[in-house]
User: Which sequence fits this backbone?
């Protein structure tokens, strides 16, 4: 996952999107921030179906209602946005556990940077952000085709955005084992 | 470490957005801006309320209360960013984020210099009253806040 600010608004003005019928949930403890998000979404044609002032309320809804898109504030009293997303990904709820999640933050504490990366959200947007950036990110997470990975206690979209070869020596044990197996196989064929 | 890969199914959202109908990006953004514009005055009120509350905060009377007081100041500065975010008030957001950075970097084993909160509240008040064209004055205010960050958090100031 990476921050959004600085990324250009790359959607064509004439591109058309239909968000009609998208079950959208916004989780934010600030009523005013919630209203601002809802108004921006409404402009895009997204009527927010579930507004939750705390994670506990959202959890109740998610257990019984399928949701297509979740926007959640990072810093909330009680269960934080990070903890909420971690819970969601591990919830086993179908299809909600795989729902696109955009996290929003006014400020990310240094101690929370790794939590932001590892909780399993599709994207984190730090404020201030424009309506254009929000729309671009929603379209992006809708089309996000990254597989979900389960690695240690991480469960969420593959955090690698690009498949670029690592320039240094291979350190992943699976890759090393695969290379060893291939070498043995080649050796046995040559015999 | 074991990696289990779950192949991504197409999300319902991705199916929905490609359905016939809907709105163009241009229209969507126009509508969003129009909707948000109705909240600009309220946004300013929220910012002013939070800045007044920050200005009125007193240093905590005991070290035990310091953490809660700092959390409160952090929450108020974050609320300023929340409210200013959609309205091109980048200077307000920068000043509030500067305060968040300072509070976030405050060492737990040392007392926090509470004047930092007061200085930021005053700076935010000034930024709110400066005319739109006073770019140099805004830059100067932000620069002085950045200096506070540089002094208190080595390597903390960006740009």
Assistant:
């Amino acid at each position: 996952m990476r921050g959004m600010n600085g990324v250009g608004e790359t959607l064509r003005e004439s591109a058309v999107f239909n968000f009609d019928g998208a079950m959208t949930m916004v989780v934010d403890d600030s009523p005013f921030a919630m209203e601002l998000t809802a108004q921006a979404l409404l402009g895009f044609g997204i009527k927010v179906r579930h507004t939750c002032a705390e994670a506990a309320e959202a959890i109740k809804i998610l257990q019984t209602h399928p949701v297509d898109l979740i926007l959640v504030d990072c810093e909330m009293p009680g269960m934080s946005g990070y903890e909420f997303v971690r819970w969601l990904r591990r919830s086993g709820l179908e299809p909600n556990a795989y729902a696109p999640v955009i996290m929003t933050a006014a400020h990310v504490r240094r101690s929370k940077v790794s939590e932001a990366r590892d909780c399993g959200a599709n994207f984190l947007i730090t404020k201030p952000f424009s309506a254009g950036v929000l729309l671009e990110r929603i379209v992006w997470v809708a089309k996000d085709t990254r597989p979900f990975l389960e690695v240690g206690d991480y469960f969420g979209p593959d955090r690698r955005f690009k498949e670029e070869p690592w320039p240094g020596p291979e350190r992943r044990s699976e890759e090393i084992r695969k290379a060893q197996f291939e070498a043995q196989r080649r050796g046995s064929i040559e015999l | 470490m074991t990696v289990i890969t779950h192949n991504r199914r197409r999300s319902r959202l991705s199916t929905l957005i490609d359905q016939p109908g809907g709105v163009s990006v241009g229209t969507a953004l126009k509508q969003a801006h129009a909707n948000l514009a109705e909240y600009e005055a309220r946004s300013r009120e929220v910012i002013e309320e939070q800045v007044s509350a920050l200005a009125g905060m007193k240093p905590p009377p005991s070290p035990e209360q310091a953490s809660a007081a700092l959390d409160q100041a952090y929450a108020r500065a974050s609320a300023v960013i929340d409210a200013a975010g959609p309205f091109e008030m980048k200077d307000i957001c920068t000043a509030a984020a500067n305060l968040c950075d300072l509070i976030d970097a405050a060492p737990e084993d040392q007392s926090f210099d509470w004047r930092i909160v007061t200085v930021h509240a005053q700076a935010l008040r000034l930024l709110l009253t400066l005319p739109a064209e006073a770019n140099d004055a805004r830059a100067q205010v932000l620069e002085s806040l950045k200096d506070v960050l540089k002094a208190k958090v080595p390597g903390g100031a960006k740009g």
Notes: Helices of chain B lie at 12-17, 25-37, 40-55, 66-84, 90-104, 115-129, 135-152. Residues 150 and 157 of chain B are 6 Å apart (CA to CA). The two ends of chain B are 38 Å apart (CA to CA).
